[in-house]
Write a structure and sequence with these properties.
The protein has 361 residues and is of the alpha+beta class. It has a six-stranded mixed β-sheet with strand order 1-5-6-4-2-3, with helices on one face. The longest helix is centred in the first third of the chain and has 25 residues. The N terminus is likely disordered.
Length: 361
C-alpha cells in the first residue's frame, strides 16, 4: 500500500477539522476494490466525509471557551437523533435523557456510550462533560446508507450503521464512542494540531481514553484488558481482531481487502507519509504503545495512575498545539512526579518512552 496516496483529504481531518474512527488508508483500500459490495459503501463514505469536513471547519473556528458550569453540570444531558439513513444533521429527535429504553438498539447503545464517557471523566477526573462545564451530549444514529464510519463533528457524535460485511453498527464499541468524544475534550483543552506528530498525539489521546472508558465500564485491570480499539466493530468477513492494538501495534488486522495494520510500535518504524495528515492514525501507535507499557508496568486500574498522568498533561496548560512526541513524553514524566512523587509512576513513564524510542524533552 502506498501510504502517500491514501485518501486522507476526504477521510481524515483538516487541522483540526473532521476526525473519523476509520483511518483513511482503510477506506482508500476499500474504495479501490473490484467488488461493488465493498467499494460502493467506501466511496459513499468518503463522499459524505468530504462534505462534513467543510462544515466541521466552520465549527472548529468558533470560540470554544467553555461557559460557567451550571447546577446540573455533574449529570449527563443526552439527546439522541435518528438520521433515518439520510445525511441531514442532527436528524429527528428520538430520545431524551429522562426517557426509558428505546426499541432501537442503536439508540440505546449510543445513550449508554455517551453516559459511560461522561461517567469516567466525571468520577475519575472530576471533569464535567467534555468541555468541563456540563456540555450536553448529542448523538445521531443511522447516518447515511451503509455508512462505514463514526465521528465527532464538534457538536455531536454521528454513527453509521456499517455495511454489515466488513463493519458492524458503529454504536456497538463503547471505546469508539469514547475515542470520538475525547477529540472533543482535546478540542477544549490542548487543541493539538491535526497533522504529523501533534496529530498522532491527538489520535493517541483519543485511543487512550477510549480504551480507559471501556476498561472502566467493564471494571477491568490493566492485565485483564485486551488493549484493542474497536474490537467489536469488524464484521465476520474481516481477518483481524480490531482497528488498532495498543499492546502490539501493527497486528490488529491483516486482511485481503482492508490491507495490513500499518502502525509502528516504536520510533524505529515511524512512517513518513503525506497521506493521513502525515500519518496521524498510523504513528499514533507509538504513543499508544508507550501508554500500554506504562499502564501495565504499574498494574491495577489503568485510569488511576497512567490515565491520570495523561489527563494531567492534556489539561494542564503546558502542552503546546504543535507538541512533538518528545515534548509529550517529557510532560508525562514531570506530571507523574508532580502528582505521585519520584516513585513507580515516574519510573514507569521514563521506561515506557525509552522502550518506544522517544527521548523526552
Amino acid at each position: 500500500m502506498d501510504l502517500n496516496n491514501a485518501t486522507s483529504e476526504a477521510a481524515g481531518c483538516g487541522s483540526p477539522v473532521f476526525c473519523t474512527i476509520i483511518p483513511p488508508h482503510i477506506l482508500d483500500n476499500l474504495a479501490q476494490s473490484d467488488d461493488p459490495a465493498r467499494y460502493e459503501p467506501a466511496r459513499r463514505t468518503l463522499e459524505h466525509d468530504h462534505e462534513r469536513r467543510a462544515q466541521r471547519r466552520e465549527i472548529a473556528a468558533r470560540d470554544l471557551t467553555p461557559a460557567e458550569p451550571g447546577a446540573a453540570a455533574d449529570k449527563p444531558k443526552r439527546t439522541i437523533y435518528d438520521a433515518r439513513h439520510g445525511t441531514t444533521l442532527p436528524g429527528h429527535k428520538v430520545h431524551s435523557e429522562s426517557d426509558g429504553a428505546a426499541k432501537d438498539a442503536s439508540v440505546n447503545r449510543a445513550h449508554a456510550g455517551l453516559g459511560a464517557t461522561f461517567e469516567l471523566y466525571l468520577k475519575v477526573y472530576g471533569r464535567k462533560s467534555i468541555d468541563g462545564t456540563g456540555l450536553p451530549l448529542n448523538a445521531t444514529v443511522h447516518y447515511g446508507q451503509r455508512y462505514d464510519n463514526a465521528f465527532w463533528d464538534g457538536e455531536r457524535m454521528v454513527f453509521g450503521d456499517g455495511d454489515n460485511d466488513l463493519f458492524k453498527d458503529f454504536t456497538i464499541p463503547v471505546d469508539v464512542i469514547g475515542h470520538e468524544l475525547t477529540h472533543g475534550v482535546t478540542q477544549y483543552t490542548a487543541n493539538l494540531d491535526y497533522e504529523n506528530q501533534p496529530g498522532a498525539l491527538n489520535e493517541s489521546v483519543s485511543d487512550v481514553f477510549g480504551v480507559l472508558i471501556k476498561q472502566y465500564a467493564l471494571g477491568q485491570t490493566a492485565d485483564q484488558a485486551d488493549w484493542l480499539v474497536g474490537a467489536e466493530l469488524l464484521g465476520p468477513n474481516v481477518t483481524g481482531k480490531a482497528l488498532r492494538s495498543m499492546k502490539a501495534p501493527g497486528t490488529a488486522y491483516d486482511d485481503d481487502v482492508l490491507g495490513k495494520d500499518p502502525q509502528p510500535a516504536t520510533m524505529k518504524g515511524y512512517v513518513h507519509t503525506t497521506g493521513d495528515n502525515g500519518g496521524v492514525h498510523i504513528n499514533s501507535g507509538i504513543p499508544n504503545h508507550a501508554f500500554y507499557l506504562a499502564a501495565t508496568a504499574l498494574g491495577g486500574k489503568a485510569w488511576e495512575r497512567a490515565g491520570q498522568v495523561w489527563y494531567d498533561v492534556l489539561t494542564g496548560g503546558k502542552l503546546a498545539k504543535n507538541a512533538q512526541f518528545a515534548d509529550f513524553a517529557g510532560l508525562t514524566i514531570k506530571a507523574a512526579q508532580a502528582r505521585f512523587g519520584a516513585g513507580a509512576e515516574h519510573d514507569a513513564m521514563v521506561k515506557a518512552w525509552n522502550q518506544v524510542g522517544v527521548t523526552p524533552k
